[in-house]
Write a structure and sequence with these properties.
Low-confidence stretches: 1-33
Structural class: alpha/beta
Oligomer: single chain
Shape: globular
Strand content: 5-15%
Largest sheet: 6 strands, mixed
Helix content: 40-55%
Distance between the termini: 9 Å
Number of helices: 18
Mean pLDDT: 89
C-alpha cells in the first residue's frame, strides 16, 4: 500500500465515512453514538450488517426479531444497527478499519477477505465460543474457512451453493428442458434469443456476479485449475482457464445477457428475472427467500421458479455435482470493542437463534446443522438442501479466496471480460501478475 500524508488520509477517511454513512438505508437508529458500558451497567452495542429491508426482507426481519429478543432477555443491553447494501458495506468496513473504529459486531466473508483484518489485529478470536454451547453445531468445514493461523476470527451463519434458477413457464412456452450438458444449455440460449426472450438476467456492475459464470466454466473445464492458480500451485495460463474466459465472451456474442448488464447492479439485474423479462438467473441460495418465504413476492411467481445445476462440458474435468459456493457471511467481534464480552455473548446468541429460525423464517441455509425432521420445508428449499448434501466439491467464491489486491484485479478483469475490453489471454495474464505480487 502506498503511504500518504497522515492529514490527507484522515481527511479522506472522514469525508468517505460521512458519505457512506449517509448511504445507509437501515433506519440505523443510534448511528454515531459510541458503544460501551456505563456506570449504571447499561451496555450499548453497535452491530453493522448487510440485510436491508428492501433487498433482504426475510433476513432483515429475522435479524430484528433476534435483536428484539436479545434485548428482552438482556434488558441492560441496547443494540444499535447500521444496515448497508453489499458493496456499500464492504467500502465502509474498509474505511472504519483504517481508523480502527469497527462496530462491536459486524459481518465478514471468509478466507482472503478476512485475512487482512486479522493481520491488522482488528478482529477478536472467537474459539472460546466453539467450545461452549456451539460445540458440534456447525457443518463440517464451515468454521475452518474463518480460521487464520489456527484461530477462528468469525462464526459463519450461512452456507451457500449457486444454482441456475429458471422460469418454468418461459421454458415450457418454448418446449425447453433444464439442460444437463453445456451444448444443451447453449441451445436453450439460442432458442430464447431467436424468440426475442432474454436468456439470462445479470447485473455485473458489482462484478462478483459475472465471476460466478467464469468460475463455473473454469470448474467444468478444468476441475480445480482455478483454485490451484489462486493458491499458487498452478498457473492462470492453464488452457482451461483461458478457454473459460473465451466461453464467457461467446455467451456475450450470443446476446445471452440482458442489455446494459455491465452497468447494472445485482439488484437491478435480478429485477429482470423477478419481473419475468429474463428466463434464467445464476445466484447463491441466499436468494431462496424470494422463491419460498418472502410474503412480498407473489405466490404465482414463486410457483414458476425451478433450478438446475450448471451443466457439464464435453471433455471437462468436473462433474455436475461440483458447486460454486461455500460458507457465506460470518459474524466478527472487533478486537478493540469496549464491550467485547457482551459482543461475544450476542454473537453466540445470534448464531444459535439464526440456526434455529433461518430455515422456516428466512428460507436460507444456515452454517449450523439443520434437523430436517423438526422443520417444515418448502420443496425448492428441500431440493437444494439435498443437492448440498450430495455435493462432490464446493469451490469458494474466487474474490473471497484471493487476497485483497488480487481480488480487486479479478473483479475488474471480470467486468472487462464481459465488456470485451480484454482478450482471454490478457484476462489470465493480468490475474497471474496479481497473484505473483502476493497481496
Amino acid at each position: 500500500m502506498r503511504k500518504k500524508p497522515i492529514a490527507m488520509l484522515l481527511t479522506l477517511t472522514l469525508i468517505l465515512a460521512v458519505f457512506l454513512s449517509g448511504c445507509s438505508n437501515s433506519g440505523s437508529d443510534g448511528e454515531g453514538e459510541a458503544s460501551g458500558s456505563g456506570s449504571d451497567g447499561k451496555v450499548t452495542l453497535k452491530f453493522m450488517h448487510l440485510w436491508p429491508a428492501g433487498s433482504s426482507a426475510q433476513q432483515n426481519k429475522l435479524v430484528n426479531e433476534i435483536i428484539k429478543q436479545y434485548q428482552t432477555d438482556h434488558p441492560n443491553v441496547t443494540i444499535k444497527q447500521e444496515v448497508l447494501e453489499n458493496e456499500q458495506y464492504k467500502n465502509k468496513l474498509k474505511i472504519l478499519s483504517a481508523s480502527n473504529e469497527l462496530p462491536d459486531v459486524g459481518v465478514t466473508w471468509a478466507a482472503g477477505f478476512l485475512e487482512p483484518y486479522v493481520k491488522g489485529n482488528l478482529f477478536a478470536p472467537l474459539d472460546d465460543l466453539l467450545s461452549g454451547s456451539l460445540e458440534g453445531k456447525f457443518i463440517a468445514g464451515t468454521t475452518e474457512a474463518y480460521a487464520v493461523d489456527g484461530k477462528t476470527y468469525a462464526l459463519p451463519i450461512e452456507l451457500n451453493i449457486s444454482p441456475i434458477y429458471y422460469n418454468k413457464d418461459i421454458f415450457a412456452k418454448y418446449n425447453l428442458q433444464p439442460p444437463a450438458t453445456y451444448d444443451e444449455f447453449l441451445n436453450v440460449v439460442k432458442t430464447l434469443t431467436d424468440n426475442g426472450v432474454v436468456p439470462i438476467a445479470l447485473g455485473n456492475k458489482d462484478r462478483w456476479t459475472g465471476s460466478l459464470w467464469y468460475m463455473y466454466l473454469a470448474n467444468r473445464l478444468g476441475g480445480d485449475a482455478l483454485e490451484k492458480a489462486i493458491n499458487g500451485t498452478g498457473k492462470f495460463d492453464d488452457p482451461a482457464l483461458i478457454q473459460a474466459a473465451a466461453e464467457v465472451q461467446k455467451l456475450v456474442d450470443m446476446n445471452a445477457f440482458n442489455k446494459g448488464y455491465n452497468g447494472l447492479s445485482n439488484d437491478e439485474g435480478k429485477s429482470e428475472f423477478m419481473n419475468e423479462k429474463a428466463a434464467m438467473y445464476l445466484m447463491g441460495t441466499w436468494e431462496l427467500p424470494n422463491y419460498t418465504t418472502n410474503p412480498d413476492v407473489p405466490q404465482e411467481f414463486k410457483d414458476k421458479i425451478g433450478f438446475f445445476k450448471f451443466p457439464t462440458m464435453d471433455g471437462g474435468k468436473s462433474d455436475i455435482n461440483s458447486w460454486v459456493g461455500g460458507p457465506g457471511v460470518g459474524l466478527f467481534v472487533a478486537q478493540n470493542s469496549k464491550v467485547k464480552d457482551e459482543a461475544q455473548k450476542f454473537v453466540q446468541y445470534f448464531v444459535e437463534k439464526w440456526g434455529e429460525s433461518s430455515v422456516n423464517d428466512a428460507g436460507v441455509i444456515p452454517a449450523t446443522k439443520v434437523d430436517t425432521a423438526e422443520v417444515q420445508l418448502q420443496q425448492l428449499y428441500t431440493d437444494l438442501l439435498n443437492e448440498l448434501n450430495q455435493a462432490s466439491s464446493l469451490t469458494l467464491f474466487a474474490d473471497v479466496q484471493m487476497k485483497p489486491t488480487a481480488a480487486q484485479v479479478h473483479l475488474d478483469m471480470i467486468q472487462a471480460l464481459f465488456g470485451k475490453a480484454v482478450t482471454p489471454e490478457e484476462f489470465v495474464k493480468n490475474h497471474q501478475e496479481a497473484i505473483d505480487k502476493g497481496n
